Amino acid sequence: MSSIHTVLVFALLSAASFTPVCLLEFCQNTDSDCHSQDKTASDAVRSRWNMTVSELIQDLGRFSLSCKKLIEAFPVDEVDGNFVCTVKNCIFSRSIPTPLKGPLRLAAVSKDVIEGILNLDMAVTQSDEFLHYASGGRLLPGSVPLAHRYGGHQFGYWAGQLGDGRAHSLGQYTNRKGEAWELQLKGSGKTPYSRSGDGRAVIRSSVREFLCSEAMHFLGVPTSRAASLIVSDEPVMRDQFYDGNVKTERGAVVLRLAKSWFRIGSVEILAQSGEVDLLRKLLNFVIEEHFSSIKSDDPDKYLVFYSTVVNETAHLIAQWTSVGFAHGVCNTDNFSLLSITIDYGPFGFMEAYNPDFVPNTSDDEGRYSIGAQANVGLFNLEKLLAALSPVLSNKQQKEAKIILKGYSDIYQMRIHQLFKAKLGLLGEEEDDGYLIAFLLKMMEDTQSDFTMTFRQLGEVSAQQLHNNNFTQMWALEDLSSHQLFSDWLSMYLLRLSRQPNDSDLDRRDRMKNVNPRYVLRNWMADSAIRRAETNDFSEVERLLHILSSPFVTQETAEEAGYAARPPLWAKRLKVSCSS
Ligand code: AMP
Ligand code: MG
């Protein structure tokens, strides 16, 4: 049983209480709001935003952004031109996007973001104007483009100044629900933070970021969002696998959104440079804008802030694990202070269950394997604490260390809840952790597909389970080849039989609402990318549509094989940091 206990460490177990849970608002996957594209356009918009389509903005000239808040709150580096330099005593630098070489093409657009967040009529995205606004060629009314100065620990080491080397924040849009969203272009040219980079992003990485941001949202995982993806004919040179084989690719820009783009690295750079007044200013701003339950005159406000970030980071990483998502580059500059998923790069959804799954082929040591993510979260939170130290008293620093000690318990408590839900378990029984760990160990031994094993357990009836009838259930067929499968199954069925007021139908419904049938597997993204590179965006569109309802069985997805055993060629796919 010792190997089962290894799995326990990876995934699960013991419940422990901690500071109050303060989850960010995000789309719960059981909420029908997540699946609005199944309705007609007008129905969806009316029911979600209490507006009719005719009330959506139809003229981009009437869509305006505000940069006032950020510019008034912080000193902005005014150096003109996008010259790479070391920047001090500021949070942002003014930087104008560099227009992409045309012709420009709208490769994809998220209706959910365009209508639901930006209150724009989808028709405006079809205009030439939109192509320019959403790729950096023209500035939206009110926009003052800024590049953010941040630093970060990369692969364990302090990397100094990083910053938005190829992203421009355009300004804030406050939508009709009163939510303020920061719009950002990625791939929009050089900034003072570009170091040796060209400021561009290529089509393949941009398709992945666009699709995965939206897919994660619909999976119910807190994330930045993507409004549009525009591709150009601008040549961009990349050595995709760092093997000397440089190829010409094409530039693309994603228009992405988040309530805030501040990261752990935003705080770190100020602490590392001894800019304590600015550090305090940044923290006060973040707390005031995004942590409404923290009072500005609370003498412990930075400590409470820290405690919230610790809590929510644990929750976020537990959610990643529960959908088999590995971020790939969990550096502190890629960890949001709002604990949302940001900066999609060489991420991957685990297929065959393996705690050592590493999506990024450049990560030789497996530092950011899926099973290591929770520990890396701890490392990043340690770095955040170090950066906060200048504004914490000795007593508060001691308390912060105690808070951090609670991180693994929060993670384990959350992961335990999530996996229990994945198995349809109600209530709490002593052996629940063992039941889950036992299953994961069998999945590891049989290399069963993570997504489809849980999904099929939720689709199969208790009777079928009892009879070992898994016809056309490929993941369960794999799992059931394990010599201990019948032992586990008896334990599981017994556990289910002890759930009062539960029916097998209810169990299956619950499980289908938390176990997706479709995730963005590398091979699916790769196939869509290859077409997008020939200006055929139909597969990107199809994936966006299907991944917007990942819990609902869809005919087009079944025909495309998105819930089938991955094709053999998928095994050869590699994803690197190159983007
Ligand atoms: P990432 O790994 O994409 O999160 O990027 C890490 C850092 O490298 C950030 O500061 C990015 O802005 C910067 N960076 C990545 N690619 C480029 C590029 N092509 N040009 C300029 N800066 C880049
Ligand atoms: Mg990054």
In words, what does this structure look like?
Helix content is 40%, strand content 12%. By secondary structure, it is an alpha+beta fold. It has a domain at 33-267. The strands form four sheets. Strands 3, 7, 8, 9, 10 and 11 form a six-stranded antiparallel β-sheet that branches. It has a three-stranded mixed β-sheet with strand order 1-2-4, with no helix packed on it. The protein has a two-stranded antiparallel ribbon with strand order 5-6. A hairpin with a 5-residue loop joins strand 7 and strand 8 (180-186). The two termini are 43 Å apart. Residues 1-47 have low confidence and may be disordered. The chain binds adenosine monophosphate and magnesium ion. Residues 162-166, 193-195, 197-200, 329, 334, 343, 345 line the site of adenosine monophosphate.
Uncertain regions: pLDDT < 50 for 5+ in a row? 1-47
Radius of gyration: 24 Å
Got a strand count?
13
Class inferred from helices and paired strands = alpha+beta
List the helices and strands and how they pair.
Layout: H1 2-11, H2 41-49, H3 68-73, E1 76-77, E2 92-94, E3 105-109, H4 111-116, H5 128-133, E4 146-148, E5 151-154, E6 157-161, E7 167-174, E8 180-186, E9 201-202, H6 203-219, E10 225-238, E11 247-258, H7 264-272, H8 276-290, H9 301-322, E12 325-326, E13 348-349, H10 373-388, H11 394-405, H12 407-422, H13 432-446, H14 450-459, H15 462-466, H16 474-479, H17 485-497, H18 504-514, H19 522-532, H20 538-547, H21 555-559
Parallel strand pairs: 1-2
Antiparallel strand pairs: 2-4, 3-10, 5-6, 7-8, 8-11, 9-11, 10-11, 12-13
Helix pairs in contact: 1-13, 6-19, 6-20, 7-10, 9-10, 9-11, 9-12, 10-11, 13-17, 14-18, 19-20
Bound molecules: adenosine monophosphate and magnesium ion.
Magnesium ion is lined by residues 333-334, 343.
